[in-house]
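Standup notes, protein team

Yesterday: finished cleaning the Streptomyces roseochromogenus subsp. oscitans DS 12.976 set.
Today: Methionine aminopeptidase structure.
Blockers: none.

Input for Methionine aminopeptidase:
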Amino acid sequence: MIELKSPDQIERMRVTGQFIGELLAELGELADAGVDLMDLEHHARRRVKERGAESCYWDYSPAFGRGPFRNVVCLSVNDAVLHGLPHTYKLRDGDLLSMDLAVSIDGWVADSAYSLIVGTPAEEDLRLIEATEVALEAAIKVAQPGGKLGDISAAIGAVAKEYGYPVNLQFGGHGLGRTMHEDPHVPNDGRSGRGFKLRPGLTIAIEPWLAAGTNKIVYDPDGWTIRSADGSRTAHSEHTVAITEEGPLVLTRRPQREEGLEDKQRSSATGD
């Protein structure tokens, strides 16, 4: 069942989203060569506890996982893209790190993810991350009241095709609000003008993720971490978005200071 939220409920979700954006920005600043993934996980645990929030991942135990997850942030490196189980691993120069965080504050959930390069970036990795970010913004742009869910999916798929990347349809975006996963499912490719009508009060996580060389995935022995089947690099971008009378409202934007990180990575790649 799809639950439409009131303006007050959306505002409460925005409070959660703001915290998530801030915490992801902090983790991005901490991520550097030599930093252990568990250091990032423990930082996230401390901040979630200090805020009085609840992790949506700690007790997460879906049919595909070997759960419960028992961590608060998904940390996926290089060919890992979704549900990366935090473990002892020191980040290396050039690693592509994707971070996915969902928490609840006062009973209202938000969910967001983004990818970054640790240290020296490769141009092809920046392009892959860019594709997910461009796809996300294209999807947000068409998330207008009166539109259709297929408009969002088609916008993501069109960007992926433009960049030349295949699309996996097993995992995609989703509704959320009182819990992390609600209806509807939001595929990362589809046909515009089809599907559920977008109405004010609908809150969804839009999350394009891509692998450079394949649309097939494999699971690690940990039962959680999802990787590209061919070992190619992957990237993941996600925001929680509310459909309002005025148009789409992004609830999980990261602080402006985080923009400088992406600019710095691009300058390093081009030698500027």
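Follow-up from PR in the comments: The domain at 7-270 is CATH 3.90.230.10 (Creatine Amidinohydrolase).
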